[in-house]
Amino acid sequence: AQSVTQLGSHVSVSEGALVLLRCNYSSSVPPYLFWYVQYPNQGLQLLLKYTTGATLVKGINGFEAEFKKSETSFHLTKPSAHMSDAAEYFCAVSAEGGSNYKLTFGKGTLLTVNP
Amino acid sequence: GAVVSQHPSRVICKSGTSVKIECRSLDFQATTMFWYRQFPKQSLMLMATSNEGSKATYEQGVEKDKFLINHASLTLSTLTVTSAHPEDSSFYICSGLLPGQGNYGYTFGSGTRLTVV
Q: Rounded distance, CA B59 to CA B15, Å?
């Protein structure tokens, strides 16, 4: 079984400030981890994913995340927020090697960027 | 990149009628498609997993007779909401599993906003 906890349902930052969205996971097998962004009334767009290898993963739009096994975390960061980053962000996990290909999502974090 | 085209993007229907939502994989063969439901300001809830040529596997608590899923070809999966009621109003999203990428390759449709009046 696997689960995802996103700490903070709403994060507000100023334009140009650091963005930090927190995600902790639980998985009985090595996880694959994902961050998705969703704009209103749209589907999900992949920001980045961790499968194997380098634990610091760089994604689109200047986002990156670091897989920390000891902390069971996969926090998303961006050095400088832009107004266009305002959206809902979802962390998700799937299980390496399983026959169950389901993605399990966190509850989401709404990012607000203030001018 | 791999694209899933989902239609319609919005639909309004009368209570008691049925609505069909289509998801087409445009440049890959989606042997597995996932269907999600999303309530306002909430996360995605997996409704069912469909595999081409076989019956869909529904998550616990999802009425399979109400949410009919058909995956008759490698490029088309459909979700039909039968005898729709206002409580079925929601945002529905499909997701295709990318071939050869196991548990780490997913692409999402753009979603369908269903409003039942």
A: 24
